[in-house]
Every structure is written in C-alpha cells, then in structure tokens.
Amino acid sequence: MIVDRQQQRITHDVFANIGHYLRPNDVLVVNDTKVIPARLHGRKAGTGGKVEVFLLHDHGEGMWDVLLKPAARARPETVIDIGPLQAKVIERLPDAMIRVQFTPSDIYDLLEQVGEVPLPPYIQRHGHQDGVEDHPGKDRERYQTVYAQQPGAVAAPTAGLHFTPELLTHLEQLGIRRATVTLHVGWGTFQPIRSAQVTDHRMAKEYYRLIADEAACIRQAQAHGGRVVAVGTTSTRTLETILQEIGEVGAKAGWSDLFIYPSYRFRIVDALVTNFHLPQSTLFLLVCAFAGRDLMLEAYHCAIAERYRFYSYGDAMLIQ
C-alpha cells in the first residue's frame, strides 16, 4: 500500500516496485539488529523445578537482565541450569526484571544450541501452514532481515523483512542510498497500551546506536536533496531520539524510551516503510502521528477490505 500524505490518496502495488516511489539520493535507513534465540528453558539447581528465562538486555561480561517464569524462583543466589549454561540470580529489578550472571559469560554461540526464537504471541504454530512446515528452525531464518548484523533483539524489525538482496541491489542501482542504525527491539514491543490516558504509557528502554559513517551517509543524502526514508518504526524512533538528544544527525549511542503519538513533530523522517500493526499499540500511534489519524484509519479499513495481511509476517505500506 502506498499512502500519499499530501494528496491524501491510497494506492496499491507489489513491494518489489518500491523503487518506483523512491527518488535518486533518497536514503533508506534500516535497522541492522539481529534477533537472538532469547527464550531459554532450564531447571532450578537442587530441586529440578522448570524455569523459563527470557533474555532482555546484555550488560556485558555475562550479566543480563531477564524475565523469569515463574517469578517466584527468582530469589538471589538461585542457580538455573540451561544445558551448557548456568544462570545465577543476582537481584530483582523494577518492571519484573531479574539480573543474572551467566557462566560461561559469552553465551551467544551457545544460544544457538539451547535458545528459541521468541515469536510474537499472535503467531501460533500448528505443524504446517500454506504447505510449508512450521517449526523453530524455519522461523530462525524467516524472522530475520537479510541485513541483520548486530545480535541483541528479541523481536525483528519486521518492515525490513520485505527486502531481498536482489531488491536492495536494484535500489542501489537506481541511486537510492542505504544507511544503517541499530536498535535492539525489546520485549516492550509486544506490550499494548493499557493506561486510560495515552500520555501515561511508558515505553521500555531499548539500546540504540548510530555510528559516524552512517550518520554522514544520511547527511550527504539530505545535502543532495534526498529524503530520509525510515524502514520501520524502530529506525524512526532511533533517528528521532538522536535528533532530540543532540539536535542533528550524528554518531550517538544510548537507550531510547521515546514514545511517539499524535501531536509529535517529526524532525528528520520524511517517509516511512512499515507493516500493519496491532490495535492499541504504540506502533499504530506512531503511524497515526506520522500520517494523521483519519488517513491511517482509512488506510487500515482499506487494507481489511483488500485482504492485506497484518502484523509481523504481513504486508507493508509506504507512507510518503
């Protein structure tokens, strides 16, 4: 779906033709975070009680913030055996998080052996779908962008799932630049807005980074009259966070809890590639802020009528 904000017009095409709607010197800003197998199943040392460990934030040297289920087994000094890994509970943190120390401290390679890809809760697996076998191995491949590089996300930046290496090469040949940010998508992306007032909702913090060379690529595109086309809400929030923090597109790393909802004034993003989102989600509010509530509601009603697929493995829209 192509949503033209200026003309207030909605049209349809296939994603492979996205280059028809971009211009030479436009810059696609993609999020190169890589989804890790963040759901682990272990047993409490001594009693053998089952414990699920959900990885959230890597603080280095084997120290992680996690969620434990059941939370009652999260007393300090508790040790959880997870195959070749051990996790020792250090302390309880706000928002139901637990800090643990892993042994060995470098867990990423071992996660491939013992971890599961944490698919969104609305994706149900029942053996086969559309003639293709559904199992965690398939999702490890599908639920990852082709440009994923930096391990640390527990959910994919799903707008990027539509791009193939061939399409990216074609766009480059058309003179469309590409720059990379990193934002490690956290568990908060699954959380609906439950507060009565939108302004009372708080986003979970997520780590982001923009390095100097990539920032320079974005500035060069702007200098040549190109638009900043954010691929996904995560790239959008990263760029807007940096503009709020330092007032320009520059190298920056930190933790973002930026919540974008209608009345927000965008400072850098000119166009947005995004999927169709859950109702009552922060993601839907972001696209309403970008395109206007009425136009987005019209777009979503149109998508339903045209039988678009929604959510992580669904279809895309370009808002420009």
Automatic annotation (TrEMBL):
It is an enzyme of class 2 (transferase). One of its GO terms (cellular component) is cytoplasm. Its EC number is 2.4.99.17. The keyword Oxidoreductase does not apply. One of its GO terms (molecular function) is S-adenosylmethionine:tRNA ribosyltransferase-isomerase activity. GO terms for biological process: tRNA queuosine(34) biosynthetic process. Pathway: tRNA modification; tRNA-queuosine biosynthesis. It is found in: Cytoplasm. InterPro entries: QueA, QueA_dom1, QueA_dom2, QueA_sf. Keywords: Cytoplasm, Queuosine biosynthesis, S-adenosyl-L-methionine, Transferase. The keyword Ribonucleoprotein does not apply. It catalyses: 7-aminomethyl-7-carbaguanosine(34) in tRNA + S-adenosyl-L-methionine = epoxyqueuosine(34) in tRNA + adenine + L-methionine + 2 H(+). Belongs to the QueA family. NCBIfam families: PRK00147.1, queA. Transfers and isomerizes the ribose moiety from AdoMet to the 7-aminomethyl group of 7-deazaguanine (preQ1-tRNA) to give epoxyqueuosine (oQ-tRNA). Monomer. This is S-adenosylmethionine:tRNA ribosyltransferase-isomerase. It comes from Entotheonella factor.
